[in-house]
Amino acid sequence: MEIAEWTEQQLRTRLTLLSESQFVYLYTPWCGTCKMTEKMLQVVMTLMPDLPIVKSNVNFCPQLVQSWKIESVPCIVHLKQHGITDKRYRMQGVDDLLQWFQKSISCAEL
After folding, report:
1. Residue 90: beta bridge partners?
2. Which long-range contacts (CB under 8 A, 24 or more apart) does 93-96 make?
3. Are 79 and 23 in contact (CB under 8 A)?
4. pLDDT tens-digit readout, 77-95
5. Residue 35 φ/ψ, nearest 5 degrees
């Protein structure tokens, strides 16, 4: 399952219409850790096919990176209607990511 890629403009436009949780995976194409994270995300998406996640190359969204105060990549940002609820920089493994997504989604539903 492929993660849809959004441009900075798509992120800005679609996130203003956000009514539920959304995750944004921020990466750079030459980052080895980013490539490993994307492979882990592929497994997570197989287990959670309805996971609301998109990806964006930070090289093409500098204003968003600055306004979201992104410190490094890879980074997964959890957004809800009122903005950023969490950022994750450390990807320890598929199990850890899966638990984080499940916890984030269940907390968002409360």
Report:
1. none
2. 93/40, 94/40, 94/43, 94/44
3. yes
4. 999 877 888 999 999 999 9
5. -65, -40
**What's the CA gap between 30 and 45, in Å, rounded?**
22
The residue whose two tokens read 């964006």 is 56
Find the helix packing angle between 32-47 and 94-109, rounded to 10°: 60
Closest CA to 38 of 87, 94, 77, 85: 94
DSSP tag of 49? T
The residues, ordered by sequence, that sit 6+ positions from 83 with a Cβ below 8 Å of its Cβ are: none
- As given in the structure block, the two tokens for residue 54 are 């998109």
**CB under 8 Å to 71, separation ≥6 — which residues?**
89
Residue 88 in tokens: 């994750």
pLDDT of residue 109: 58
Res 110: pLDDT: 47
What secondary structure letter does DSSP report for 73?
A: S
The pTM of this model reads: 0.92
